[in-house]
Amino acid sequence: MTHSNRLCVANDKGRACHRLADAQLPVALCNAHRIEIALAVVPDMLRSGLSVALADSGTGVAGRDDLVRAAMATPVEGLLGGVHDSVVYFIANGGRVKIGYTTNLKSRVSALSLRADSVLLALPGGPELERALHARFAQHRSGDTEWFELSPEIFRYASARNAAISGVAPLASAEVAGGPSAATTARHEQRKSRAFRIYADLGQPSQRAFVKAWREHGYGETDQTVRSLYDEMHAAFEKSRKGNTE
């Protein structure tokens, strides 16, 4: 037997392999046993190597809190028309919130059988930001899922970023509760944020124009709720206007 046609040195269930070796170095192995060994060894090697690389580079999930701090919100309503650039979303359901990423927020909300107003926050970004946020809020996470307890910490994070683009001040820490009440508070704040943007964009509109614009955005809510939001915005703008002229 020549060097070029040696048999595989591995065995099949205790019996010598009868196949010719496809590789001679470092040991003679047939293609089937090369693949079998790779499947057994490579995943563990990759996992170990990844852990070392992340620790050495300082760019692992634990080291990317800078992404979490620097993330800026984008208006949710601009994402509900279909496919868009990747965003990380916070979607509330009861006392829980799902933190994931998507390029079609409308489809994701529909797949969860929820309404658009369940989206508490949207941040431009993808898997890296998602992983960083999962690490940041790990203590509130439900197992290995993308669902988290809607804790005061998570609510404050979403509230502060929405405030930066809406002009509505975030709630003080003392006003933020955990559990289902946080979800209710979050939805109320979101309604106020939307009402502020509509009122400001229309330039202090009439109540009728405000309600029409609200409906055109598809935000839902009862007529009484929308009128109350208008009254709240109108009073706030009037107070600000008078304060500037006194």
Structure, described:
This protein has eight helices and six strands, in the order ββααββαβαβαααα. The chain has 246 residues and is α+β, with helices and mostly antiparallel strands. It folds into two domains: 3-57, no CATH class; 68-245, no CATH class. It has a four-stranded antiparallel β-sheet with strand order 5-3-4-6. α6 (180-202) packs across α8 (223-245). The termini are far apart.
- Read across the widest sheet, the strand sequence of neighbours is 5-3-4-6
Computed structural class: alpha+beta
| Number of self-contained structural domains | 2
Question: How much of the residues is beta strand, in percent?
Answer: 5-15%
Shape: elongated
Cα-based radius of gyration, to the nearest Å: 28 Å
**Which spans of ≥5 residues are poorly predicted at pLDDT below 50?**
47-63, 168-180
Distance between the ends? 104 Å
SSE topology string: EEHHEEHEHEHHHH
What is the residue-averaged pLDDT?
75
In DSSP terms (H or I, runs of 4 or more residues), the helix count works out at 8
Helical residues, percent: 40-55%
- Quick one: how many beta strands? 6
Q: Characterize the largest beta sheet: strand count, sense, and whether it forms a barrel.
A: 4 strands, antiparallel
Protein topology:
Blueprint: E1 11-12, E2 15-16, H1 31-57, H2 65-70, E3 87-93, E4 96-102, H3 105-111, E5 119-124, H4 127-136, E6 147-149, H5 152-166, H6 180-202, H7 207-216, H8 223-245
Antiparallel strand pairs: 1-2, 3-4, 3-5, 4-6
Helix pairs in contact: 5-6, 6-7, 6-8, 7-8
Short key terms for the protein model shown above:
246 residues; alpha+beta; 2 domains; 4-stranded antiparallel β-sheet
